[in-house]
Amino acid sequence: GFRPTLGIDPVLAVAPTEPPVSPHLMVSLRPANRPEQRQLDSHARPSAVQIRRWAAAIDEIATTRGWSVRFVAWDNSHDALIHEQTAALLTVSSTLESPTAEAVMDRMGDGAAVLTMRYHGAVAAIRSSRPALVLDYSPKMADLVGEIDEGLVLVAPDAESKVMVEAFNQLPAGTVRRSLGDLEPRVLANRDVVRVLAEACGT
Questions:
Q1: What average pLDDT does this structure show over 110-130?
Q2: pLDDT tens string 73-89
């Protein structure tokens, strides 16, 4: 067998981007994980109360800054309905987007800031130097924020809207200069594991 090695999401090894800032709040919401459920299809949809909380927070964040909202679906079958229901409650203008797998990472980092319940939405914010409010639906979200705490704020996904807004207000405006140097050993660990696995397969 192999000893476990702590690596990091391979996407973080890709060269970071910093697209021009556009006046949009990029949002990705999703069904919540529950420990006893392994299949996302069986997860309960957010309640009407939860949708209203998200909508109220998103609306205030965007309205205060003169932004519009772009909902970005990472998994359309699970995210689209939640996005539609949330967007219907907004007073600011919004669009619903379902980028391709190749384009979604760059698209998520294309606005002024990110509000995400998707792990890779937070990764996109990191790569594009955008501030992000991260909804803590899974331990991996807290782990990521703990690793890279510059310009990321963690909040419970079922928090009251005013708590989400207050958390977002803690974020710096504009782009965030992050140092990913401390993660380099983890990136190298990924490469070592891939090499060992390739050798074990005779490739």
A1: 92
A2: 999 989 999 999 999 99
**pLDDT confidence band for 37 (50 / 70 / 90):** low
Q: How far apart are the first and last CA of the chain?
A: 18
Q: What is the DSSP string of the chain?
A: ---------GGGGSPP--PPP-SEEEEE--PPP-TT---GGGSPPPPHHHHHHHHHHHHHHHHHHT-EEEEE-SSHHHHHHHHHHHHTT-SS-EEEE---TTTHHHHHTSSSEEEESSHHHHHHHHHTT--EEEE-SSHHHHHHHHH--TTEEEE-TTS-HHHHHHHHHTSPSS------GGGHHHHHHHHHHHHHHHHHTT-
Q: Are strands 113-116 and 24-28 parallel, antiparallel or unpaired?
A: parallel
In sign, the C-alpha dihedral spanning 58, 64, 65, 69 is positive
8 A C-beta contact, residue 167 and residue 155: yes
Contacts of 124 (CB under 8 A, 6+ apart): 104, 105, 106, 108, 109, 114, 116, 130
* Residue 71 contacts residue 28 (beta carbons within 8 Å): yes
**In this predicted model, which residue has the larger pLDDT, 70 or 190?**
70
Name the residue among 30, 51, 19 with its Cα closest to residue 141. 30
Instruction: For residue 115, give Cα distances in angstroms to 44, 132, 157, 185, 201.
Output: 21, 6, 11, 28, 41
